[in-house]
Automatic annotation (TrEMBL):
Keywords: Acyltransferase, Transferase. Gene3D superfamilies: 3.40.630.30. This is GNAT family N-acetyltransferase. It holds the Pfam family Acetyltransf_10. It comes from Streptomyces physcomitrii. It comes from the Bacteria. Residues 4-154 form the N-acetyltransferase domain. PANTHER family: AMINOALKYLPHOSPHONATE N-ACETYLTRANSFERASE-RELATED-RELATED. The keyword S-adenosyl-L-methionine does not apply.
Length: 154
């Protein structure tokens, strides 16, 4: 693989590929209930998809911003919320996650946002710190998994 191809998922088949990766990782591997994993914000989100040279989906993530997403973005119109970052097991360790984060940050910059927030599973704090994110606030549970809030100024 020459490196993942990351793009905004605008076509229905691309969005379904994003949901399939999330289903595999969050519902299948981590045991998150489907009714928690999928929410009304999916309709408002910018979905990003990573694929290999053959077009096989490897990972996904989403960016929330604007009206209707205030609960995730703290009501600040200049801040986006990165979430639902998932990489298929066979693609981990290949730079897919970092490429997805960069793609989501690019989408945020393109929409005039000055910062990106996220809720990281605590085991992934180091990954996000290496990409320039800083943790803040206390640890909290989300879907029964410990998380911390993080932010990066763009």
């Amino acid at each position: 693989m020459s490196g993942p191809r990351v793009r905004e998922a605008v076509e229905p088949a691309e969005r379904e590929a994003c949901f399939a990766v999330r289903r595999e990782v969050f519902v299948g591997e981590q045991g998150v209930a489907p009714e928690i994993e999928y929410d009304t914000l999916d309709a408002l989100a910018v979905h990003v998809l990573a694929s290999d040279d053959e077009g096989t989906p490897l990972g996904t993530g989403r960016l929330l911003h604007g009206p209707g997403t205030e609960a995730k973005t703290g009501g600040d119109p200049g801040v986006g919320s990165l979430g639902r970052l998932a990489v298929r097991a066979r693609a981990r360790g290949l730079g897919v996650g970092a490429a997805l984060v960069r793609g989501i940050e690019e989408a945020a910059r393109g929409r005039g946002l000055g910062a990106v927030d996220l809720h990281a599973q605590t085991h992934a704090l180091g990954f996000y710190e290496r990409l320039g994110y800083t943790a803040y606030g206390p640890e909290f549970p989300d879907a029964g998994i410990p998380h911390r809030a993080m932010r990066k100024k763009l």
